[in-house]
Amino acid sequence: MGYGSEHHGSAMNAFVFDQLRHDWTREEILALHEMPFLDLLFEAQRVHRRYHAANTVQLSQLLSIKTGGCPEDCGYCPQSQKFAADTGLKASKLMDIEAVLTAARAARDAGATRFCMGAAWTRPKDKDLETVAEMVEGVRALGLETCVTLGMLEERQAQRLAEAGLDYYNHNIDTSPEYYKDIITTRTFDERLETLEHVRAAGINVCCGGIVGMGETREDRAGMIAALAALPEHPQSVPINRLVRVKGTPLSDTAPEIEGLEFVRTIAIARLTMPKSMVRLSAGRETMSDELQALCFMAGASSIFYGEKLLTTPNPRENRDVALFKSLGLTAA
Question: Looking at CB atoms within 10 Å, which of 71, 72, 320, 326 has the fewest?
Fold first, then answer.
């Protein structure tokens, strides 16, 4: 077996990348990290083109429908009420349905095909979930793909969102199981997996990835990818976020910056281990050069968030993305 080219050295003759696997080990994933960078990108792009349209990137838009006041203590997140005194972020109430639909129409008219809604909750209350279900129905009626992230879900709540026609539920594992406790203490890694089980059982597509650049090791990044690739079904959507350092959060000045090519390697390895998944180049693009983003697309990233703002953090302006797509010959989908 080989990497798909007879020219690779014998030390790398370990994998065939055209097979769907759920048994990736950390050791294998760490071996992928050690591949020559150009070989890794070559294989990632080859696999990408087998399962996804070449030179095509999906445009998504993300809206915070309920900001701040979250009781969790995720060390990267400015929405935690535990860090509010330092971040200055004030909590807001759940948005009105019509205001959300107005934003969704604007996103659609700007070229987005997927509309994501996020609420800063540990888990939604049933009355709020009912409102979100109506938002989902309204956004789908506009012809947009829908995704929400609301925290942990009970089984019956996932079923209600499925009845509303929700396409994707986002619930990231964030990092490796071992490093997780250094980032979050208010919910466990296993609780995140439980929510993913409820989402899958309801027939909703899973959107699940993580954040890199939080001070984790390469072994932790391998552990995160291994955990995702070992799920009963690969997540249909895998967002890979680069830490956005928000002043006032614990990680704002403690985590070392992840090197750009190491970030690209993470994208490529997600593509190789979960070949059918949409790998999403998510938070952190604001500080990436056009060249670094181009390498991410070469590595298999197939979606970006479009618009000037994510939940609470900045994102590249639309005109910059338009220019980038034009220079790279990419088609928005």
Answer: 326
